[in-house]
């Protein structure tokens, strides 16, 4: 059994899922709001944080090796940009029957272990995930608040161009997008392929 787990982990690393966006929201579209349960039991929406000028919306989970490799980078993005109005908002999209390690209780434990300073909400029905068109974990949507109750999607895709080694990344797509939004400049790269584990859909 242990050997099987090792082989599965290695196969995921060697053959990542290259996320092609499903029918869903695209760059320039109005972001869909939601009401999803956070690990602290509260319901979170895009309007919960009134000070937010936008969001780094990340579909991520506990169990995917790629999500794990990007976890510290996601935390760093929040620490860098939350005070500038662009906090992280993380959504766990996997069906927990298919992926028990992503259960609400395990989400709570993970958030406590890593001291998440941002919401980590569960999409129990997977309707929000389907609406956005997210395909894998992690999958990022950078949102910009253009008016009251109106967030526009400005970037979709990967965090950077090196999942295995943050220091070796030469392109930092999410940072670039947020920095340009803060400065009022155009975003040169508006979409990339998100590389990670395929979302576990319910039956």
CATH class: Alpha Beta
Number of domains: 1
CATH architecture: 3-Layer(aba) Sandwich
The ordered string of helix (H) and strand (E) elements is HEEEEHEHEHEEEHE
| Share of residues in helices | 25-40%
Broad shape: globular
The biggest beta sheet is recorded as: 7 strands, mixed
Strand line-up of the largest beta sheet = 3-2-6-5-4-8-9
Tell me, rounded to a whole number, the average pLDDT: 91
Q: Quaternary state, please? A: single chain
Count helical runs: 5
What's the N-to-C terminus distance? 26 Å
Q: Can you tell me the CATH superfamily?
A: Glutaredoxin
Structural class: alpha+beta
% residues in beta strands? 15-25%
Cα gyration radius (Å): 16 Å
What is the total tally of β strands? 10
Find the CATH topology.
Glutaredoxin
């Amino acid at each position: 059994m242990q050997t099987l787990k090792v082989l599965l982990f290695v196969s995921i690393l060697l053959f990542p899922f290259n996320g092609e966006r499903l029918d869903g929201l695209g760059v320039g579209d109005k972001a869909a709001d939601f009401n999803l349960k956070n690990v602290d039991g509260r319901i979170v929406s895009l309007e919960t944080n009134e000070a937010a000028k936008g969001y780094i919306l990340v579909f991520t989970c506990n169990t995917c090796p790629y999500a794990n490799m990007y976890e510290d980078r996601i935390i760093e993005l929040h620490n860098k940009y939350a005070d500038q109005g662009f906090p992280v908002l993380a959504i766990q999209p996997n069906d927990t029957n298919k992926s028990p390690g992503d259960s609400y209780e395990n989400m709570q434990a993970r958030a406590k272990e890593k001291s998440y300073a941002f919401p980590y909400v569960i999409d129990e029905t997977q309707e929000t995930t389907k609406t956005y068109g997210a395909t894998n974990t992690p999958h990022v949507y950078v949102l910009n608040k253009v008016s009251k109750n109106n967030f526009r999607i400005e970037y979709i895709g990967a965090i950077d161009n090196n999942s295995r080694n943050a220091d070796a990344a030469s392109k930092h797509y999410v940072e670039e997008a947020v920095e340009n939004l803060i400065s009022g400049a155009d975003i040169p790269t508006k979409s990339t392929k998100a590389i990670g584990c395929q979302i576990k859909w319910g039956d």
